[in-house]
Structures are given as C-alpha cells and as structure tokens.
Amino acid sequence: MKIQSKSYGYYYVSISLPDKQKLMQTNNERAFIISQLQDLLSTRLLISSVPAHSQLASCIDLLAFSISSESIQLLVFSIDSSILTQFSNCIVTRLAQYQYEYRPSRRQPSFEPRAYIKKLRGPHQALARSVELHMFHEDWEYDRYSSVGFYLHDRRGDWMRMWRLAQLYDNDTSNYRLLLESHIKRYDAALQPNLRSFAS
Fold first, then answer.
1. Of the residues 3, 105, 120, 146, which has the fewest C-beta atoms closer than 10 A?
2. Using an 8 Å Cβ cutoff, are 68 and 91 in contact?
3. Is residue 82 within 8 Å of 6, Cβ to Cβ?
C-alpha cells in the first residue's frame, strides 16, 4: 500500500483489483459499501466511553465518493494516513465477508483488493478531484452510488461532512453545477479529436 505522508490533510483513496477486474458484481454490493461508510463514519455512532482520537468517525471527514463495479473511490480529510489504512482495510474486510455470505460460489478474483492512498496538496486539489469522481458516472447528476446528490440536491447525512470543500464554492449548488458542467464540456471537447481520428 502506497502512503505519501503521515500528516493530517486531504486524501484520495482507491480500493480496487489489479488488471481492471470487477471488484463488485451487483448493485447490492455497491449499496452495502454505502451502508458501511454510514456505519463507520456516522457521528451518531460515536462511543462515549472510547477516546475520540481512536474512532474513525471523529478522525475522518468523508468529502466525496464514487462506487463502481471496478472500484471504491473516496475523497477524505483525515488526521493521519495510518487511520486511512485502518479504514480502507475495514472496508475491504467487510466487503469480502459480505461477498462470501451472499455469493459463496462466486469466482474468486486472482488477487486481493488493494487500497491506494494519495495525499493531495490541499482543498483546491480535493475539490477538483471531487468533480472527477462525480463526472465519470453515466448518470452523473443522479447516480446514487456517487456523492453528487450531496452537492447538487441537498442529500443529507451526518456521515458526509463536506464543509471543507463547500466553502470553496460558497456552499452554492449552482456554483458546483457550473464547475462540474465546465469540466464535462472540456473533457468531451478533448475527446472529440480522438474519436474523429479513430473513425477515419
């Protein structure tokens, strides 16, 4: 597992299998991951008798997520990268247990899922990465396996704590929409020459 730094800050986390193997086969598995994020990061579930610094919900702010059949991608603010290692290992373990219980006869992947953790430079790079996570969903505005609804449609949940990024676009959904749409247009424009050369 690659870890860039042990300091607090913004991080991108990706959990996947090598060679673009499918990590999850069903939407139930993707929904299970969302339920685990809620379970691990909800402040309602903090245990008063356990020190706050040892509980994931008080050490990690989930800023954005994208869950596809190939990967689990998360954007977080964390007090330390070692906490993220524990967090990502927990997700991998719980997913494996779920898959074993509900699909025991499934074809075993060639490799175990791995987590890649990269420290970002700061909030502006994190905001740009949130746009990247959201724009590559086919139904980018309404996909339930993306956190875009928290940015555009006032979805709520104490397990999503986006204020660090929301302040960069004045906590205005129309500003985030413009940001997202401009990135999509630039991506589509860059793609057009490649498509034309491929067709010719």
1. 105
2. no
3. yes
> pLDDT tens for residues 75-119?
999 998 888 999 999 999 999 999 988 876 665 655 789 999 999
Six-digit token string for 160: 């999503």
164/76 Cα distance (integer angstroms)? 10
Residue boundaries of the structural domains of the chain: 9-199
CA dist., res. 183 & res. 115, Å (int):
27
Give the full edge-to-edge strand order of the sheet including 71-78. 60-67, 71-78, 9-16, 114-119
- Structure pTM? 0.86
For 49, counting Cβ atoms within 10 Å of its Cβ (0-12 exposed, 13-18 middle, 19+ buried), the class is exposed
| Helices 173-199 & 123-135 angle (0-180, nearest 10) | 60
Class of domain 9-199: alpha beta
